[in-house]
Amino acid sequence: MAANPVPLRSELRFATLASGARIAWAESGRSVAGQPPLVRAAHWMTHVEHDAQSPLWQPWLTRLGRSLRVVRYDERGCGSSSGDDTPPGLAAATEELAAVVDACGSPRVAVLGLSGSCAAAVAYAARHPERVSHLVLHGGYTHGLLHREPSADALAYHRAQLQLMALGWGRHHSAVQQFFTSTLLPEATPEQAAALNEQQRLSCDGARAAAILDARAALDVRPFLPQVRCPTLVLHCDGEAMVPVERGRELAAAIAGARFEPLRSRNHIPLAGEAAFERFCDAITEFVGGSSSIGPGPQFTRRERELLDAVARGLDNLQIAAHLGVADKTVRNALSQLYAKLGVEGRPQAIVRAREMGHGQG
Which domains does the chain have, with CATH numbers? Predict the structure, then answer.
């Protein structure tokens, strides 16, 4: 099974939405035959052009990239993605994720949702079960502040944050950005805190930032949670202030068969240098890579690999028989044995699995 490391790079690609807006995306890491790429749904204030040099995200991408191909993107109106008149929210975020999944060229992907982007990850997995092999959710919640019968004080505090963002976002050394950074990453080093401040400043202007924060408070994916059928891992830092750990447990409990694992950290997202960061990366790579990798290794004979390639290319039994120079009955028997070895129930599943393993691409 071939595994080719790909260095971090800043090359951008673009997926076009129905409105004409262009979603900037990039990839890095290790492509492994039979293993789905990990698509990071766009989260708070991304800028994919700066990821490769960021003290926040460069270690994260490098560490996960040892074992996984990682795809990341900016939501519309942020980073290197263009904007349109569509307001931020679940429908917009799910459309962006779907466009990037289609653009990355893999029949199935693992999806990673972080914080507010967990909603788009859940909705996409529920709507497109054939495209999602694994779902990883970190720091997420089932529904936002506006759906939790907030007190008058809680609503006033939320509105005050929106006003501060609208007026003070986008300035160098802005106290508004530092306010969010200190809440998100209370244990960040000065370099890491400065990196998040700058990332927030560069990602979008104040009006867009306030609209995104308001949209996060309005998210509600409870109707989609019972529809998620793929293996799901829910991670959450147990000491963070932005989204209490109880929200993570609530999220995991609502998805059938989901695993929940708390991480020992006060940061919203684990940072390089703390034990939670290593466990975060290990948990994801073990979950996505450990169980999904059925590759054309020693367990498959040369003839079986030829058969896998033909199946992945969509050939029917007669075409396979002609291609391999065998009888049609021989093909039927060989396919039955191959389906059993793959653990699938028929040709449609076998085609998907064979393509995941890297067959049919030549």
Answer: 3-290 (3.40.50.1820), 302-356 (1.10.10.10)
